[in-house]
Design a protein that fits this description.
This protein is of the alpha+beta class. The chain contains 15 helices and 27 strands. The strands form four sheets. Strands 1, 2, 3, 8, 9, 10, 11, 12, 14 and 15 form a ten-stranded antiparallel β-sheet that branches. Strands 4, 5, 6, 7, 13, 16 and 17 form a seven-stranded antiparallel β-sheet that branches. Strands 22-21-27-26-23-24-25 form a seven-stranded mixed β-sheet.
Length: 546
């Protein structure tokens, strides 16, 4: 690194930005409170920041490096997220903002708070662990010598390619669904929701106005697009412009910062409200991390989903927030904030698994298995070449064998096929023990066949029987550890509905499509007189309670 530019106080922010007009490459961050130094009306209201308001380094060269070569595979741990504000205090802050909105003082304000997260391991290892699971398109890693920033941001602040400017404000959040169909329904609901549309439109208009300060031909080519991330759905819009002659990336940063999506509208008044209402400075959170290349091109994120920690610290700071408008509900906004921390618990996309039956080289259910795997790949954002998978399976049974075929698809697109003997048919009814469903009914592992199935096996081992019938806390039976469950009722097989949280079994789907089975609620009492369990590998088997 050839030099560093650091602004410790408001008076050093503009000189620091001026230095960034020198040839790069530059890389670093600007903290949220630096925005108060860029507007004369806001300077007296600038909250004290205990961290640099701006930190950039100038480097000898601008080159791409495979991030995996830097991160390694050392262990790292992440603990629970502990909000730094009590729920009652948060509700009071939100009520103050709603009162200002009702009085016509502001239209929207972004309300945030800091949370504490217990962490273990080197920051590079922690970044490596969280990076795969977050799938953040604008992630960044910064070390100043005194501070680590680990950013897993999904939001672009602005990109500058020559004179072409692009901003992608993000407003509107919903939790992921249980499967691809649920995701699609939630995305449609998010896109149609009046509150989220109004919130997004306000910030899009704000960004249009901000971009008009540095360029012309301002357009909105995409409005209310919903993007899928591992734990949330996000609504974004796209704003483009053409920079005026002579405008540099530092000019754009100075005139647009902070991003309107993390302030509110009107922007300056919203920042005054934030300084009055929030418990303390945000620091790097909701600021921006970015690079300016030697050619002058630049890309800056909005520093959300960002951990801030000191070297060797056992905890990290995580900012969480949401946009408050007239019809915001405190419980909903609190839940949205916590949902935005869920990326910390998500690992990389799991391996997908399908186990199918082959008889004399015939694979009667292969298309159903591939369709289920493909749906899961869409949900997890995994790479899956269904044609390649089909060809690999067919090649493995080309000599007309009979056996158990296990297809494994990694998130990277790698495929493996394992062949083993068919399991023996049970002698008589399978003994099935009752077991409490060991995970929340909304857990995604219940709806997708992945390598993360240890809790199923543990339940069966603990029972000491051939199979278990999993029972929810409300008493409804869901499925077995490797089979679906069926009871006879009015000459039809009745199987628990997918909405209860269970795997869409291939045999189950076939029986329903053939009119031999229907969905219906099943209780423990329904199992007392005997029932059936089954999957595509073993078929339908008689069962009894142990």
């Amino acid at each position: 690194m050839l030099e560093t530019v650091v602004a410790e106080g408001p008076e050093a922010v503009r000189p620091g930005l001026d230095r960034l007009r020198a040839p790069g490459p530059w890389a670093g961050f600007i903290g949220f409170e630096a925005g108060y130094a860029l507007e004369p009306r806001l300077v007296p209201r600038a909250p004290p920041a205990g961290e640099p308001l701006l930190w950039f380094g100038r480097f000898a060269e601008d080159r791409a490096v495979a991030v995996e070569t830097l991160l390694g595979d050392a262990p790292a741990t992440v603990g629970a997220v502990v909000p730094g504000v009590a729920r009652g205090e948060y509700d009071a802050q939100l009520a103050r903002i709603l009162a200002l909105i009702a009085a016509g003082d502001i239209y929207q304000a972004n309300l945030t708070f800091a949370a504490t997260v217990a962490v273990g391991g080197h920051p590079l290892a922690l970044y490596a662990r969280l990076r795969a699971g977050s799938r953040a398109p604008y992630g960044a890693l910064v070390f100043t010598g005194a501070l680590w920033l680990l950013s897993f941001s999904p939001e672009l602040f602005f990109r500058m390619d020559g004179r072409a400017l692009l901003a992608r404000p993000m407003k509107g959040t919903a939790a992921r669904g249980a499967d691809a169909a649920d995701d699609a329904a939630r995305a449609a609901a998010l896109q149609a929701d009046p509150k989220n549309r109004a919130e997004n439109l306000m910030i899009t208009d704000l960004l249009r106005n901000d971009l008009s300060r540095v360029g012309g031909d301002v357009r909105v080519p995409a409005l209310f697009a919903v993007e899928t991330y591992p734990t949330v759905l996000q609504m974004t819009s796209t704003v483009t412009a053409t920079a005026h002659d002579g405008v540099t990336a530092a000019d754009v940063l100075e005139r647009l910062f902070p991003c309107g999506s993390v302030t509110g509208a009107p922007k300056i008044r919203a920042m005054e409200v934030i300084a009055e209402v929030e418990a303390g400075p945000r620091g790097a959170y909701t600021g921006s991390i970015g690079v300016i290349s030697a050619s002058g091109d630049a890309v800056f994120n909005v520093a959300i989903r960002t951990l801030v920690m000191a070297p060797g610290a056992a905890t990290a700071r995580l900012g969480l927030g949401s946009g408050i408008v007239a019809d915001s509900d405190a419980a909903d906004e609190w839940a949205e904030c916590l949902a935005k921390s869920a990326f910390l618990a998500r690992r990389g996309a799991p391996d997908l698994i399908e186990t199918m039956r082959c008889e004399d080289g015939n694979l009667p259910d292969i298309e159903a298995h591939l369709a289920r795997m493909a749906a899961s790949a869409v949900f997890f954002g995994s790479v899956l070449d269904a044609d390649a998978a089909r060809n690999r399976v067919r090649a493995a049974v080309s000599d007309g064998i009979s056996g158990r075929i296990r297809l494994i698809a990694c998130s990277t697109g790698a495929i493996a096929v394992q062949v083993s003997p068919l399991p023996p048919a049970p002698a008589g009814a399978v003994a099935v023990a009752l077991a409490r469903l060991p995970v929340d009914p909304g857990d995604w592992r219940l709806r997708h066949k992945t390598g993360d199935r240890g809790f199923y096996d543990a339940a069966r081992r603990a029972a000491g029987t051939g199979e278990v019938a999993l029972v929810r806390a409300d008493g409804w039976v869901t499925e077995g550890s490797y089979t679906n469950i069926f009871v006879e009722r009015d000459d039809l097989l009745v199987t628990p509905p997918l909405a209860l949280g269970l795997l869409p079994g291939v045999l189950r789907g076939r029986l329903i499509n053939q009119g031999l089975a229907v969905e219906g609620m099943v209780t423990v009492a329904d199992l007392a007189g005997g029932f059936y369990i089954g999957n595509a590998l073993r078929g339908l088997m008689a069962a009894r309670l142990a």
